[in-house]
Amino acid sequence: MKEKLRSNKVIFALLWLEGAVISFNTACVAAVIPAIARDLHKDSFEIARIISFYMIPYGLAALIYAPLVKRHSVKAIKTVCLLVFALASLIGGLSASAFCLFTSRVFAGIAASATTPIALILTGELVPKEIRGRMVGVFFSATFIAAFAGVILSAVLPWRMLFIVPAVFALVNAVLVFLFFDFKSKVEYDYEVNYLHIIKERRIVRIFIYILILSLAYHGIYNWLGVYFSSLQYTQAQVSLLLSLVVFSGIFGQPFGGWVTDKKGRVFAATLGLAGLSLATVFLISPFSFVYLAAVLFVFGIAWTMNHNAVSTVLTDFPDKLRPELASLNSAVRFASGGLGVGLAGVFMQISFSLTFLGLGVIILILAMASKKILKEEKIIGFPLRKRS
What pLDDT was estimated at residue 3? Predict the structure, then answer.
């Protein structure tokens, strides 16, 4: 028993480290878009596509990890993905053109997309339901701590270092996984993966439509904040500091959201989070002062992470044999729709930041009011699973 507990601690420590490595520069890219644009002699709205070039491949590639986990060693999958991520990040940091940078982010997104699905699969399998929300919170807190460090460093480091640093740590993480990661699933995944069977369940479909719309809205807001604040004549250091508050609040928002999720219920936490997110989004319309924006963004981050934790925990509550598909679909929908949201929001942001914030805030409020109906627990109807030959 002691040996098993020790092995589980190592597994989760390596999962948290991987989440941190992958997340280091995802948040800070929004802050350095103007700096990258100046260096590569491009327009900020054009360079902002770097986010979609990462998020959409991330989302699409996440769908492959449910079948891979059922057929191959988790250790092997994670080692290969970390090595690919390290190489892609290094190439991104050394890029001399927008094309090279965008291409490197495609491969980085494909490799990074293994992280969250596998973390949720292992959390659902190894952690009791009563404390699962808090364990999900700890994992995402690790990602937010790393993202916070990245955003803070974006104020002082050249933008290229924000890609080279995670490349180095990804290589270290790959070596540690290869040497110390010891996991063998106790669940017999003896059937073919079929996402069409999964989405026949009405509750599952509702949850993923909810995630899709929310991700479109959230990423359409967050990833344009760097350009928005630059248009208000804030310096790079000020922009980085403001965005760091979103990530910093997430460090506390994830464990706090996990506690609310476990103690008050998944639906309550999800609804409260979206109500706060909607309010903060609308408050961005009138940027009265730097301190005012800092307070709004702190609430924005807390609210987002509370909902994120609640919905992620809902997905771990489904039966074991559904968990790999649901974990992969979660990342796929969140990131693919998020990448599309950045592109769609950009069209409207070029016309009016204020009207775009208002429209997205209203959409989020509607989702908040629909949370109870969408997320409430129902009996999952059994469906035939196609056995592997």
Answer: 53
